[in-house]
Amino acid sequence: MTPSKSYKETPSYTPTQNACKMCTPLGATLVFQGIEGCVPLLHGSQGCSTYMRRYLISHFKEPVDIASSNFTEETAVFGGGANLKLAIENVARQYAPSMIGIATTCLSETIGDDVQLILNSMDNHINSTALVHVSTPSYSGTHVDGFHGAVAAVVDRFNPAGKRIVYRPKKKKKVNLFPGMLSNEDLRHLKDIFEDFHTPVAILPDYSERLEGPSWQEYQAIQKGGTTISAIEKMNVAVHSMEFGAVLALAAEKGLETAGAILNKRFGVPCTRLPIPIGVKATDRFLDILSQISGRPVPERYRKEKWRLVDAYVDGNKYVAKKRALIYGEEDFVVSMAGFLAEVGIIPVLCASGGKSKTFKKALEQTLPETLIDQVIIQNDMDFTCMEETAAAMPEDQRPELIIGNSKGYAMARRLKIPLVRVGFPIHDRVGGSRILHVGYKGAQQLFDNIVNAILTEKQTESRIGYSYM
Description:
Elements: H1 24-33, E1 38-43, H2 46-60, E2 67-68, H3 73-78, H4 81-95, E3 99-104, H5 106-111, H6 115-120, E4 125-126, E5 129-134, H7 143-158, E6 175-178, H8 184-196, E7 201-203, H9 229-233, E8 240-244, H10 246-253, H11 259-267, E9 271-274, H12 280-294, H13 300-320, E10 324-328, H14 331-344, E11 347-352, H15 360-367, H16 370-373, E12 377-379, H17 384-393, E13 402-405, H18 410-416, E14 420-422, H19 440-462
Parallel strand pairs: 1-2, 1-3, 3-5, 6-7, 6-8, 8-9, 10-11, 10-13, 11-12, 13-14
Antiparallel strand pairs: 4-5
């Protein structure tokens, strides 16, 4: 398998093993974990919920409960309506949640269960528990598709057309932020930024406390934390919405109904979409837009963080300049990371994702400098086997010297004998995966330090005598 030098000539692959993605309901489940008092429920077999729990627990190192409608052979033949109703009733009785988030699996989608019709027969709530459904068949998307779909479904459910809430005059008006699938530390840092701008923000989802809380004195059926239902219901009167994701933005232009698009269409809430703010350029844009929305100047602390970061770029330039990297993961995350790497002088020679978006290449084309485009191979709908074969087949002077992505690429990095810098989701072979900061100037500083140190470690390891000073 010989890769072309230009992404325009890259052949189309069909992923068949070790996919560079996870099941669609996983993303939806993570969103539901970011809503206060919500319990996720998968409409399908018990094995599906076990799979989701395994990935979330290994990354966040926190207990995660995911209910299941527990399909059997009989259910698969005659339909799962009775199972779903029973599961909802059991969860409502045992947990008393404010909301049950219901995501479908491949099996329930394949047999054609009309989940929304079933929920309508329960009046879309049971007792005081709201019911929210999102369609998440894994054969037609990735975990990130499930994530965005769940965010849109929640906003749609609690902001129906014609039910605009009127603010009291003395209330401060909020900004909605739909950040995408970021780390706990990213979400906490974003909340700090809005606080420094003296601008209230409603972040959906916010699992930063619920999936990284303190040790319990007593068992909690539902962990504390998450975006409140009340905050979600008031999103229709926000002064502005912000959505992160360059690929998501291009998809929205083509008609994808995102959370921001729903609020804009129904209530006229302006929506700004921008890449995940990783690196100086992307963070500059985010802070400038937030400054315009809030009417406040960028706080001095962020100007200082920026110039400390720029100084670090200068200090480390001799170690990273013209180094070559392979990046993989969620499409929007890869796009933003590629922009950051190009900013510090690293060439992202291979950008890969398991997503199937038709806008992935265009987003990278808009992000990377024109001088780098011909040096980059772009592959989506990709598995790790094809990714590894592509990297191994590249000429020696074009082959990656660094791999950047989640823990699923460890075996590939080991075989290729290339250092792996762990970022994104999932990170299940290290502690602190949920505490990795990617966004803002501080996030770029941490990423830059980790990348430079990975390069220096490799140099020391390969050296016959090693060295003690840089």
